[in-house]
Amino acid sequence: MKRILNLEGAINLRELGGYPTKDGTTIKYNKLLRSGDISNLTGKSLSYLKNYGLRYVVDFRSNSEQQTWADKTADFYQIYSDPVYPLKGNGDKLAGMLNQGNYGYLGMIYQSVVLDTHGQQAYKLLFDLLLKNDQKNHALLFHCAAGKDRTGIGALLILKALGVDDETITKDYLLTNLMYENTDTIEKTLNDKNGNQDINRMNMTQGDFESITSVFKAIDHYYGSFENYLKTALGIDKEKLAQLKKIYTE
């Protein structure tokens, strides 16, 4: 199976199946997709996604992004609006206290997102929908604009919950840089002149190793363990975690 799905009108659309877990299992194919903007999907691409089994689409973009570049609708999947921004701001303070200026722009933003109560609410909805996606041959796609930052954090949380090791998660995140060696695509199609300039800046900033690993550090620092973060911040207790592993790994 291909990791990168070059479908017409799709941006940074990728398969999450096939990654090994520390439990000795593998993430199932045809269950999880991560992506950037999907407002330009063609009929041919929609036909592919229908055959793939797509049923759930989770849109992390802001309301203004969703209005400017509305997701392509189809009768075989349901779209769930789940904006990560605007954050409440409490995560910024925690990230600032932890970092003391050690991390770059993206690292600080990412830490703020996973520590912020609104950010956590957005990813809690993602996990609730992941649990709903329990039928055989049904799949879920989550996305933002570039498929890098808000989506990258979503992928990190899912993969880590399913038992994928940090190094593999980081490699999956950095794959986005291959997709965006030419940033013209983002500039032309994704940056909202009237929208949130922080989002525009994030879209244009290449991902790096430090940014994504800083998320693991922030979670460990404030929650003691990733399991505790899942339970406390996202409402995923041991029972639900076992359920997720049953749905998404084999």
Automatic annotation (TrEMBL):
Signal peptide boundaries: none
GO MF terms, alphabetically ordered: phosphoprotein phosphatase activity
Domain of life: Bacteria
Cross-referenced SUPFAM superfamilies: (Phosphotyrosine protein) phosphatases II
Family label: Belongs to the protein-tyrosine phosphatase family.
Name by which UniProt lists this protein: Protein tyrosine phosphatase
